């Protein structure tokens, strides 16, 4: 039996599913109080394991966010053979916007192109002597929505854009788009591999930690079996314990991560050039719920795999 302080055993005060669950839940809490040291070690181990996983998730989320911002630079410029008259510009923009994947469309006239050119060469005006707006083409600057920024999507879009009457040359930084999408694919692959290895490692750690908890009460399990307790009756409180320990470990890991975020990581984005104005972002609510859910599931899986070895009743 466990060497912890003895706690009064709860009694089954109500029949039915609710009564049984209440009994198992109360008994799980009593077991946690009776084995405080082992419970604290288990929760601390789960907290540390999930903290590492949550930190990885935080870095991954911010890397994906930064890469998404970089993808905003994917822009297509369609040059006109001849500058369209003002009344035709609206019709051309409507035709371009009708192409699936179109985000924002901006018309740049020859005069605006010449002003931009002079602004870029400010301080070197001598180079622009004799340059008039007529030597620069009018154009449409087109940004794509995020679902059409992959290499194949951009190529399909450009092919449809070239069919618009009046548009001559189309430029979109083909090499940059290919390298960027290759980088994104590598990052997703590395994230998936590291995430998978980390999940297996966390599951292994949590399972073995809970196994120690179950092993510490091996005699209690055997005694319950000898007096005729069913497998479900024996297992239920331990499964609830695992769920509680996993959920508590997940919450504590998020609290520690948030404290570290406020202390060290909030402004780290400026140093690491993550975004232009804000620092690193904390985990979104869906990821926070995911970490808590993962902790709960890991606690349940760790408990049920540990109990298999000791309960052969």
What does this structure look like?
The protein has 313 residues and is of the alpha+beta class. It has ten helices and four strands. It has a four-stranded antiparallel sheet. Helix 1 (16-34) crosses helix 8, helix 6 (174-216) packs parallel to helix 10 and helix 8 (231-265) packs antiparallel against helix 10. The longest helix has 43 residues, at 174-216. The model has no long low-confidence stretch (mean pLDDT 80).
Features:
313 residues, single chain, 8% strand, alpha+beta, 10 helices
Question: What's the short story on this structure?
Answer:
With 313 residues, the chain is of the alpha+beta class. It contains ten helices and four strands. The model has no long low-confidence stretch (mean pLDDT 80).
pLDDT averaged residue by residue: 80
Beta-strand proportion: 5-15%
The largest sheet, given as strand count, sense and whether it forms a barrel, is:
4 strands, antiparallel
Name the strands of the widest sheet in spatial order: 2-3-1-4
Count of strand segments: 4
Query: Whole-number radius of gyration?
Result: 31 Å
Low-confidence stretches: none
Helix-strand pattern: HHEHEHEHEHHHHH
Count the DSSP helices: 10
Question: How is the topology of this model organized?
Answer:
Blueprint: H1 16-34, H2 36-71, E1 75-80, H3 86-97, E2 102-108, H4 110-120, E3 139-144, H5 151-161, E4 167-171, H6 174-216, H7 218-226, H8 231-265, H9 268-272, H10 285-310
Antiparallel strand pairs: 1-3, 1-4, 2-3
């Amino acid at each position: 039996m466990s060497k912890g302080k003895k706690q009064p055993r709860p009694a089954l005060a109500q029949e039915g599913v609710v009564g049984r669950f209440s009994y198992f839940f109360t008994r799980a809490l009593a077991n946690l109080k009776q084995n405080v040291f082992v419970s604290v070690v288990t929760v601390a181990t789960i907290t540390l394991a999930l903290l590492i996983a949550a930190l990885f998730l935080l870095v991954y989320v911010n890397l994906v966010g930064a890469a998404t911002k970089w993808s905003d630079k994917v822009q297509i410029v369609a040059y006109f053979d001849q500058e369209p008259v003002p009344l035709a510009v609206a019709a051309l923009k409507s035709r371009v916007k009708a192409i699936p994947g179109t985000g924002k469309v901006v018309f740049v006239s020859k005069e605006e192109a010449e002003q931009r050119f002079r602004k870029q060469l400010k301080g070197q005006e001598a180079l622009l002597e004799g340059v008039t707006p007529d030597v620069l083409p009018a154009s449409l600057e087109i940004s794509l929505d995020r679902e059409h920024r992959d290499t194949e999507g951009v190529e399909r879009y450009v092919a449809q854009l070239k069919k618009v009457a009046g548009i001559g040359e189309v430029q979109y930084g083909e090499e940059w788009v290919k390298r960027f999408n290759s980088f994104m694919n590598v990052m997703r692959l590395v994230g998936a591999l590291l995430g998978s290895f980390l999940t297996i490692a966390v599951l292994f750690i949590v399972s073995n930690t809970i196994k120690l908890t179950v092993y510490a009460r091996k005699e209690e399990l055997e005694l319950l079996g000898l007096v005729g307790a069913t497998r479900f009756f024996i297992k239920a409180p331990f499964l609830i314990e695992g769920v509680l320990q996993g959920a508590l470990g997940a919450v504590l890991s998020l609290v520690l991560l948030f404290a570290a975020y406020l202390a060290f990581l909030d402004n780290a984005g400026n140093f690491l050039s993550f975004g232009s104005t804000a620092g690193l972002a904390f985990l979104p609510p869906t990821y926070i719920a995911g970490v808590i859910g993962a902790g709960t599931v890991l606690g349940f899986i760790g408990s049920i795999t540990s109990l298999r070895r000791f309960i052969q009743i």
